[in-house]
Design goal:
The complex is a heterodimer of chains A (178) and B (625). Chain A is of the alpha+beta class. Helix content of chain A is 56%, strand content 22%. Chain A has two domains: 70 residues; 79 residues, PH-domain like. Chain A has five helices and seven strands; from the N terminus they run αβααββββαββα. In chain A, the strands form two sheets. Chain A has a four-stranded antiparallel sheet with strand order 1-2-3-4. Chain A has a three-stranded antiparallel sheet with strand order 5-6-7. In chain A, α2 runs antiparallel to α3. Chain A is elongated. Chain A starts with a helix and ends in a 5-residue tail after the last helix. The N terminus of chain A is likely disordered. Among the domains of chain B are: 64 residues; 65 residues, no CATH class; 157 residues, no CATH class; 79 residues. In chain B, a hairpin with a 2-residue loop joins β9 and β10. The chains are: A alpha+beta (178), B alpha+beta (625). The interface between A and B is large, with 33 and 38 residues. β4 of chain A pairs antiparallel with β18 of chain B.
């Protein structure tokens, strides 16, 4: 434990490398909250309803009542973790930077990942906007290479379009550099 | 035999280097493509716009496969009736005759139906060389037209199954730029020389269409047959057998009318020794050992349960087990030998071509610019012998029928040598791929930090070892079981005691297996720590993952899609990180990674891929160890 803390302090002072400069739009935290709340509810609600119906019948009521309470507690805990605890951490960790040449992404709460994607390898750049993102006037940008797809969720719609256009332009004019 | 090429060019004897056939050399004045008569173009084997049929063996040969399947299914489903028929028929001979007659009749009817269907589909199956693209028309009810612009043709491969060999036909596969959404186009059942002609035409038309697009003068082509006299150095017994059998009749290997567009600059074959050792080492030793261990464990359990009398049966079981092991080994050896028989890898112009197989014949080509990676792989047995397998990573198109392409992504690589002595790898790569001559040398690799060894042992033995978690579960289960039964044994008597002892022995066997596995893992980790590393030079990344098997990957800079580092909390505490690089090889892309390099190396790894257009002067090549 001690070594972990010490190491963290050291790396605070001498960062491995400056993190990418840009953060996502702060509104994306609300997008995540809404999204996760919907998912958690979709999963938990049928279970809770099921237990609730069981409490109405005297034969199963004694088993179902504690289960109903446990279900409620699990639901609330999940909501607290995903709506209160995780979004600020995830937001703080999610960083990206667009240089003229490459896209730099850092993310992850426990498993910290860092990607470098040169624009000359980018095949297409799309913006996507689901109903939730649209409600917040945000858009996500996906950058696909020949192998994988990288998504930057929740950028301001105008920034997203700017990024998409710039990547497309760079991909068009880029020549092999070595 | 009766299928003729639309225009059969003069085909000189193989290897004699006779002068060019007239139609193939173009005049200097070149009009652009798509101007009607195209006077300057060479005489293509297939006139533009003409619908070409595949060979008629498509009608009568391809149903045989379906017929075989139907026969197997039929026998399996009606086996009871057949047996009954034999058992209860009064006049055995007569009923046997009846059954045979019935089977033959049914097969004939089925074959007729199949032939009818394929005849219909044959009628609608044709391929066309248009001005700018190649099209394949197919479909009886739903008409389909798959087309590929010439400029996007990447490779034209041939495959010949044993059944196709009967009629001397092959299937031509046209690969495009690749990616999961692009399907390979297959032209089934064409004569070998027609397949050659399709390939030659496609590449010539591609060259013309590219030249026309760029506004350059039309390229000149060499006449067929002019190409080269095959150097038979390093050939093996199976090569000669293949030549005698008339197997090697794809382009230029033993001569052929369509020798290709450019001369061969390098060719390598397997020697007798290489072929034999490749076959032997291919049989999966670890699988055999695991099988043996399970057999022994089962024997021990049986002995506990039934007492030592069971040892009498060992006289039968042991020979049978060894026999089946031997047969399995021989079978894998034979299939490997057949699939690598008459293996040949060559360099033709900007392309690498591989041809192999005695029964199933495969031809694959790849443009050097399309190579995603060079992979040098050693299994444990190859490592002990000092040999390795060299393959090229390539982008695969998903073909609709073959769902198992995901399962064997490694097999998607193009093997350019199945069994090469380690010190000959540089020689082969330098001759076959001179473009890769400045790849990192072994002295340029940078190793892992000391802490990686401790972390490696813990990770491989415990955290990421499924067996470890299984053993933990077993321990809990065993303790619980013993606790419960120690109170109940009295009631159950000797039966219960035997059950408990059987359970305990099984658990001990599991622990034994775990200990053996851990020993192997520790050895592997020692090797991993010693031999693994990465290298970054101006144009290449290289990753080496050593261990019980070794895999070294060379990635050219242009083919790396992105690089990444991943750090979990424990790695962060130890100051290390996992580095990885992603290429487009395979169907869904391939990730090569190395655990636990230092954070500084991870940062340099990320920096390396940043485009150097503005900062050419600041390239940082890592310090040599």
């Amino acid at each position: 434990m001690y070594s972990t803390i010490k190491r963290n302090l050291v790396s605070e002072r001498m960062p491995m490398k400056a993190l990418p400069a840009n953060q996502l739009d702060p509104r994306v935290k609300n997008v995540w909250r809404l999204n996760d709340a919907i998912w958690i509810t979709v999963v938990m609600l049928p279970i809770i309803i099921c237990f609730f119906v069981m409490t109405l019948f005297p034969e199963t009521a004694t088993i179902a009542r504690p289960l109903l309470i446990i279900g409620f507690i699990v639901w609330v805990v999940l909501l607290i973790v995903w709506l209160v605890v995780l979004p600020p951490i995830r937001y703080a960790r999610w960083r990206y930077e667009i240089t003229p040449d490459y896209l730099d992404i850092a993310k992850g709460i426990f498993w910290r990942k860092r990607y470098i994607i040169p624009f000359i390898r980018v095949q297409n750049t799309d913006t996507r906007q689901g109903p939730i993102l649209r409600a917040f006037d945000l858009a996500s940008v996906t950058v696909s290479t020949a192998a994988h797809e990288h998504e930057i969720p929740g950028l301001d719609a105008s920034i997203a379009e700017d990024l998409r256009d710039r990547a497309a332009e760079l991909a068009r004019i880029a020549r092999e550099d070595v | 035999m009766d299928q003729q090429l639309p225009q059969t060019p003069a085909s000189p004897a193989p290897g004699q280097g006779t002068p060019s056939a007239p139609g193939y050399v173009t005049s200097p004045a070149q009009p652009a493509l798509g101007q009607g008569t195209q006077p300057g173009l060479p005489a293509f084997a297939f006139p533009t716009g003409q619908h070409n049929k595949v060979h008629h063996s498509y009608i009568w040969l391809s149903p045989l496969l379906g017929l075989g399947a139907a026969l197997v299914v039929g026998v399996l489903t009606s086996i009871e009736d057949i047996v009954k028929g034999f058992m209860f028929a009064g006049d055995a001979g007569f009923s046997l005759l009846l059954i045979l007659l019935f089977v033959v009749l049914a097969l004939a009817v089925l074959y007729g139906i199949f032939v009818g269907i394929t005849a219909l589909s044959y009628k609608h199956l044709s391929f066309v060389f248009d001005e700018t693209e190649f099209s394949l028309y197919s479909g009886i009810l739903t008409k389909r037209r798959v087309h590929v612009p010439y400029a996007r043709v990447q490779s034209v491969n041939h495959k010949q199954s044993p059944i196709q060999r009967l009629a001397g036909v092959c299937t031509v596969e046209i690969d495009t730029a690749g990616g999961a959404s692009n399907k390979a186009i297959k032209v089934p059942y064409v004569k070998l020389d027609v397949g050659e002609a399709i390939r030659a035409d496609l590449f010539m038309r591609k060259a013309y269409s590219l030249a026309a697009e760029a506004g350059q003068p039309m390229p000149q082509f060499m006449a067929p047959g002019q190409a080269y006299a095959p150097a038979m150095a390093g050939s093996n017994v199976l090569d000669e057998a293949a030549r005698d059998m008339g197997v090697g009749d794809f382009r230029g290997l033993y001569g052929g009318s369509f020798a290709g567009l450019e001369p061969i600059s390098f060719e390598r074959r397997l020697s007798n020794k290489e072929l034999l050792l490749a076959s032997i080492s291919h049989s999966s030793v670890s699988g055999m050992l695991a099988f043996l261990f399970i057999c022994i464990a089962a024997a021990v359990v049986a002995m506990i349960f039934f007492g030592t009398e069971i040892l009498i049966y060992a006289a039968f079981v042991i020979p049978v087990t060894f026999m089946s092991l031997l047969i399995a080994m021989f079978f894998t050896m034979a299939t490997t030998a057949l699939s690598y028989g008459s293996f040949s890898v060559r360099r033709r112009g900007s392309r690498v071509e591989v041809e192999r197989g005695i029964l199933q014949r495969d031809f694959s080509g790849i443009d050097v610019n399309r190579i995603q990676s060079v992979v040098i792989r050693q299994s444990l047995i190859r490592k002990l012998m000092g040999y390795c397998e060299v393959s090229l990573g390539r982008i695969r198109a998903s073909s609709g029928e073959e769902q198992n392409t995901q399962a064997n992504l490694n097999a998607g690589g193009l093997v350019i040598h199945p069994f090469l002595k380690l010190d000959q790898v540089d020689g082969l790569l330098n001759s076959l791929l001179p473009e890769y001559i400045d790849r990192p040398t072994s002295t340029q690799f940078k190793g892992l930090p000391v802490v990686a060894f401790r972390r490696g042992i813990l990770r491989r033995c415990l955290w990421r070892n499924g067996m470890f978690w299984f053993v933990l579960l077993t321990i809990v289960f065993q303790i619980g079981f013993n606790l419960v039964f120690s109170s109940a044994t009295a009631a159950l008597g000797s039966e219960g005691a035997r059950l408990v002892s059987l359970l305990n022995v099984s658990c001990v066997l599991i622990y034994l297996g775990f200990i053996i596995q851990v020993v192997l893992i520790v050895i592997g980790t020692v090797w991993w720590k010693r031999g693994s590393g990465f290298a970054m030079t101006e144009k290449y990344l290289a990753l080496c993952n050593d261990g019980l098997g070794t895999e070294t990957v060379y990635l050219p800079r242009q083919k790396i899609q992105d690089v990444y580092t991943r750090t979990n909390p424990f790695q962060k505490a130890a100051g290390v990180t996992t580095i990885g690089a992603v290429t487009a090889a395979g169907v869904q892309g391939t990730t090569s990674f190395l655990w636990d390099v230092t954070e500084e190396d991870g940062a340099a790894w990320l920096d390396w891929l940043k485009p150097r257009t503005q900062q050419q002067a600041q390239i940082q090549v890592p310090a040599q160890p």
